[in-house]
Give the backbone structure.
Amino acid sequence: MHFKEAYRQYNEAITPDPALVRETADLAREQEEEGRKDRREVAFRLIRGTVAVAAVCLCFIIVVPVLAASEPIYRLMSLVSPELAQFFRPVQEADEDKGIRMEVVSAYIHDDTAQVYVTLQDLEGDRIDGTIDLYDSYFLQTPFDCSATCKTLGYDQETRTATLLITIWQWGDQKITGDKVTFAMRGFISHKKEYKGVEIPVSLLEAEEDAPASAQHINGRGGGRFQGEDGTAVPKKAEVTYDVQESGNPTPIVRVLVPGEMIPGFPVEGIGLTGMGYVDGLLHIQLAVPDRIRNDNHGSLYLMDKEGNIRGDDECIYFHLSEREGNGSSAGSGQERVDYMDYIFSVPREELKRYTLYGDFVTSGVQVEGKWSVTIPLEE
């Protein structure tokens, strides 16, 4: 039976909630449109060669009923977007490793874009839950650089199955060609925990006046939540210089705190405080995350006074070091890489007595690594 005719007959027997369909369809279209406006705005990790992408997955949780992998794929697609479902071709090929079954349920590959419905089922335990995040582990084998997004559509606790929609774009409008393409993943994280409004047990008055600092090549810059009492203040940024690498590309360098030992008693496991002091007249407070490339533990810091008024950071500097580079921190556990978040506050020392340090954090409780891959035919 022709694919569209089969889809039409099946879809006529299904009547998902219209409001739910409209909402999820709008979200899907919005995601597609935003990605095409500027695909480089999507957080990603580039890996050249056969591995084209390892995206920092932006996993949006959509509240829809989760369907077990054994249920018809057209019902799954109709819940997300009936008007788009007719373009998806059934694949229903699976691979198993480490007691985890990955099935590519269906795919829609067109021009430079691949959209893939994937289910992940734990056959042995409860390592999968509704917070599952593929993080930096999935890719489409292609010779071109890509960016990607991942939506978690839901989780079925009874079958221990998560359903995800993954969208991958090739850069430069390069079409996905050939008679087949392979989708693969190398792991996931799950059982995430969120911590809101956590008081950090340190006194801001202990911040060093002229703290030891070093110039570091940085991974990125973010933060900037400080707006001042009138909401119009412009966050102060750290001074940036540039180092030209052998490739000819300039690499930004910023003076940050020299990482020290993790301060005992930090309230969130998997994250540590490694420094607090003034550098070039600005208050720096530094967090460290061992092995973040695998666990995605992260957080944000802010100051709060007794009345509950919050003073956000002016900027956050991201960089990483390895034990071989002598980062000086007690990352421990044999992990070589430690990621740092150096939060900067333009608060004078005389005002520190007004504030207490707080933070919001996210950690993952389970990390699973393995090798899963499914080959998808590209025939019309």
Notes: The radius of gyration is 23 Å.
